[in-house]
Write a structure and sequence with these properties.
Blueprint lengths: L2 E6 L9 H12 L10 E5 L13 H13 L3 E6 L11 H10 L4 H4 L3 E3 L8 E5 L7 E5 H5 L2 E7 L1 E3 L3 E3 L1 H6 L5 H8 L5 E2 L9 H5 L5 E3 L5 E3 L9 H5 L5 E2 L2 H21 L6 E6 L21 E5 L2 H14 L18 H5 L9 H6 L7 E5 L1
Parallel strand pairs: 1-16, 2-3, 2-7, 3-4, 7-14
Antiparallel strand pairs: 1-15, 5-6, 8-9, 10-13, 11-12, 14-15
The protein binds iron/sulfur cluster (SF4) (2 copies).
């Protein structure tokens, strides 16, 4: 059965301004959420790594906070620590980055709480019957929240191909242990013969798993590797790569099973908001925001994360390509822009598996508000 996906195409006017359009979107998509007075509601967001500018702008989220409060909920912005040792690897630096990026409780009306504690060890174990995952490790305060609204910046992703609702929930809500659990087996394959010693991979490896060896050949320490995938796209000679189809498919499946575990912690439906703005080629973890692949498209909202992601992918792919960008020259509207910049990812980018395990439907009805 097709799921409803509500869509605001960014048009606004004096009598129907941006806040009013956002509220209309929320009123349509939020029917039946069943929020009760005092529900502690996690707004799962990505605050953006230092140096990134493509994350969802906080001011766009003020009407979301206001609307949730009107339903009686008590919303808070949240995310979990990263595996790598950047600015979001522990709660102190993570909170500061959130503040630097404009997530100000006084301005937005909701505090920032890092969901897995000071050092990323605060987690809840959730049992599921997945093909890969039997015990999922979820950031404790996301698991404990009474309700969940995912705030998703739609963009490409180095390993998953595409990042939207399912990735933000599945990977983003996992504790460090849960993230490691999903990344396992995706460490790189190194073909030393192809290495030209440029050092680009070591520069992006936050785990310091890559170091320059004798004769300017890179050395890989798999013990330190967390399988983040940053080096795959940094290496222009294909000296670093992975067993693409097998490992990426298994990685995507684990991520979808984690998304299922997170949603299973909620007795009420979750709401997913996909911001199809600044559709850059990489994740907001990467430390910079490259030029967008298409013009800004709008905001999608649905209680079905699979439908929300499928609709977002379809809208991006149908859009006019933008250059200068990482897109290959000559790509036409309709071609898969995410696969054009991340060609190692399976065609469906994990959405077929998400549908298969009951996370939602790839069929959707797009309803403009
Ligand atoms: S996947 Fe690459 S960048 Fe990531 S930790 Fe491993 S070696 Fe470093
Ligand atoms: S990016 Fe590739 S070529 Fe450059 S040092 Fe790393 S492995 Fe070698």
């Amino acid at each position: 059965m097709a799921s409803n996906v509500y869509f605001w195409n960014l048009r606004a006017g004096l009598k129907n301004n941006n806040e009013a359009r956002m509220r209309k979107l929320l009123a349509a998509a939020g029917k039946g959420l069943g929020l009760a007075a005092g529900d502690l509601t996690a707004l799962k967001v990505h605050f953006g790594e230092q140096g990134v500018t493509g994350f969802v702008r906080p001011l766009l989220l003020k009407p979301v906070v206001t609307w949730l409060k009107e339903q009686g909920a008590k919303p808070f912005f949240t995310d979990a620590s990263t595996l790598y040792v950047g600015q979001r690897g522990e709660a102190v630096s993570h909170s500061l980055v959130a503040a630097e990026h404009g997530f100000d409780p006084l301005l937005l009306g909701a505090p920032v709480l890092i969901a897995d504690g000071l050092k990323g060890a605060s987690q809840e174990m959730v049992r599921i019957r997945g093909k890969h995952v039997k015990k999922a490790f979820i950031a404790a305060d996301i698991a404990a929240a009474d309700a969940l609204v995912s705030i998703n910046h739609v963009k490409g992703h180095e390993m998953a191909g595409y990042g939207g609702a399912l990735k933000n929930i599945g990977m983003g809500s996992a504790s460090k242990q849960g993230k490691m659990h999903q990344h396992i087996t995706t460490g790189p394959r190194l073909d030393v013969e192809k290495c030209v010693g440029c050092g680009a991979c070591a520069a992006v490896c936050a785990s310091k798993a890559l170091t320059m060896g004798p004769k300017r050949k890179i050395r890989l320490n798999l013990e330190k590797c967390v399988g983040c995938g940053m080096c795959f796209s940094a290496c222009k000679t294909s000296a670093l790569g992975i067993n693409w189809q097998t490992d990426i498919q298994a990685f995507l499946e684990r991520m979808m099973e984690y998304a299922k575990a997170v949603i299973a912690t909620k007795p009420k439906p979750c709401l997913h908001l996909n911001f199809v703005l600044n559709v850059c080629p990489d994740c907001d973890c990467i430390g910079f925001t490259d030029a967008p692949l298409c013009p800004d498209i709008g905001v999608l909202a649905s209680q079905d994360p699979v439908a929300c992601d499928q609709a977002s992918v379809d809208l991006v792919n149908a859009a006019v390509p933008l250059w200068p960008s990482r897109l290959p020259k000559g790509i036409k509207p309709g071609a898969n822009k995410f696969l054009a910049v991340h060609p190692h990812v399976p065609q469906d980018m994990g959405l077929a598996y998400a549908e298969k395990i009951g996370l939602g439907s790839r069929k959707y009805k797009l309803i403009e508000v």
